[in-house]
Amino acid sequence: MRVIVDANIPAAERCFGELGEVVAVPGREIDGASLAGAEALIVRSITRVDAALLEAAERAGARLRFVGTCTIGTDHIDQAALSERGVDFSSAPGCNAEAVVDYVVSSLALLAEREGTSIDQRRVGIVGAGNVGERLYRRLMALGLDCRRCDPPRAEAEPGERFYGLDELCQWADVLCLHTPLVCGGPHATHHLLDAERIDALAPGTWLLNAGRGDCLDGTALRQRLAMSGDLRCVLDVWEGEPAIDEGLRRLVDIATPHIAGYSLDGKLRGTQQIYAAAMRCFELPVRLSLDDLAPPPPLSRLELGRGLPPWDALRLCMRAVYDVRRDHDGLARMAIEQGMARGFDAWRADYPLRREFSTLEVAMGMDGRSLAPLLVAAGFRVN
Ligand SMILES: NC(=O)C1=CN([C@@H]2O[C@H](COP(=O)(O)OP(=O)(O)OC[C@H]3O[C@@H](n4cnc5c(N)ncnc54)[C@H](O)[C@@H]3O)[C@@H](O)[C@H]2O)C=CC1
Ligand SMILES: O=C(O)C(=O)[C@H](O)COP(=O)(O)O
Questions:
Q1: % of residues, the chain, pLDDT over 70
Q2: Which CDD domains match (predicted)?
Q3: Average pLDDT, stretch 36-52?
Q4: What sign does the CA torsion over 152, 49, 51, 67 have?
Q5: Residue 120: what pLDDT?
Q6: 128 in ligand 1 pocket by Cβ < 6 Å?
């Protein structure tokens, strides 16, 4: 069997090699011709799998029976077009949700440090409380922040849970985190959910983060507000028009990264493993590999904290030992200068430096440091 995989999928050969010949193609170059003879296609989010691609693939002699995306988001997949052709489909729900939460916590801590404040005084509004948003909600609440959620589909399905309307949340929050999927129609559409009117209404000093999908936020309206008054702090990981993003907007935001919030090795491997398992089930083969077989030991597995550090300084130190979001912000800025915006955006992602999740680090501390343990555990570390 011939399996076409996005070249940016770790452990692809090891996992999908169990099905047959694995051919790696850069995600943006997967077209009908490259699918000639293929029975399985494994992508990430940058390959649009729609009727046009499937028709071109059929003309080139593909006999697709399985399509999998090793990502949480599915807006790049026309699932109706697959189902019409009887092609099995699977995505990887939740695979990199922990990594996105690490990214957000790391970014909030950096903004607070730059302002000389602490994040535990902030009121955080989370828009989209699914695998990512709900984990973020729990982590931030455990860290002592005041958080509220907006999720109309969940509000309808779970009348016992407390959710807030978007406008109410925007008024209340001084930090707004967007974690919605891109949904283009229907009662809960998210395209430009944060439109010009809502962006203009944000109170000065609000911190705005988007790690969902770029099209959920009107980037032109945000650029105009930042250019006019510069009174918001912004963290953008996702953008309209990726990879050729608005360079003017990139320069104006405080933390600008190239859609890597979920790019921990753990998150990527979890995605690969979930799709490997789905593909094996589709072809009625045994699932032999687990995440433990794929994930190497982390380069830093244990850290011993000395005495006397204030709690949030200790936390920042542990976070930076595992992941420092400034690396990705600086990396994108450098790549944009060296290679131009679109190529630079993809170059940083294709050659992404190793990153592990907070949970891979065990923090040790002496008896007098025990009071730090709850904070570190709340942030996602293991302590002993
Ligand atoms: N920046 C990155 O690297 C990553 C981005 N993502 C994006 O984040 C999105 C969310 O991920 P998950 O939480 O895992 O997905 P999920 O499907 O578990 O949750 C999405 C949540 O959004 C809610 N929602 C839908 N429409 C809404 C609306 N109009 N307003 C508010 N909430 C709404 C849903 O009810 C659901 O609870 C993904 O669809 C993907 O597009 C995911 C992983 C990595
Ligand atoms: O899982 C998702 O959804 C994401 O947004 C991915 O983390 C994005 O990764 P790529 O598909 O861009 O490699």
A1: 99
A2: ErythrP_dh
A3: 98
A4: negative
A5: 87
A6: yes
Instruction: Indicate if 134 belongs to the active site.
Output: no
Please give the distance of CA 358 from its chain centroid, rounded to a whole number.
15
Active-site annotation holder among 18, 98, 240, 242: 242
Ligand 1, atom 21: closest residue by C-alpha: 130
- 97 touches 131 (CB < 8 A): yes
Cα 339 to ligand 1 centroid, rounded to whole Å: 31
Mean pLDDT of all residues belonging to the chain: 97
* pLDDT at site 366: 76
Going by C-beta distance under 8 Å and a sequence separation of 6 or more, which residues neighbour residue 107? 209, 235, 255, 325
pLDDT tier for residue 368 given thresholds of 50, 70 and 90 = low
Structure tokens at 85: 């052709």
Quick check: 105 and 319 in contact, CB under 8 A? yes
Amino acid at 163: F
Establish whether the linkage from the previous residue to 299 is cis, with ω within 30° of 0.
Answer: no
Q: What is the pLDDT of residue 167?
A: 98
**How large is the angle between the packed helices 97-115 and 311-322, nearest 10 degrees?**
130
Helix (H) or strand (E) holding 100: helix 97-115
In the predicted structure, residue 99 carries a pLDDT above the cut 70? yes
Q: Is the pLDDT of residue 221 over 70?
A: yes
Residue with the nearest Cα to atom 17 of ligand 1? 130
Distance CA 125, CA 107 (A): 15
Query: Per-residue pLDDT averaged across 131-156, rounded?
Result: 98
Domains of the chain: 2-91+264-294 (3.40.50.720), 97-256 (3.40.50.720), 302-383 (3.30.1370.170)
Helix (H, G, I), strand (E, B) or coil at 235: strand
Which residues contact residue 329 at a Cβ distance below 8 angstroms, ignoring those fewer than 6 apart?
255, 256, 257
Determine the 3-state secondary structure of 169 from DSSP.
helix
- Give the mutation target among 47, 72, 260, 332 for probing the ligand 2 site: most ligand atoms within 8 A of CB: 72
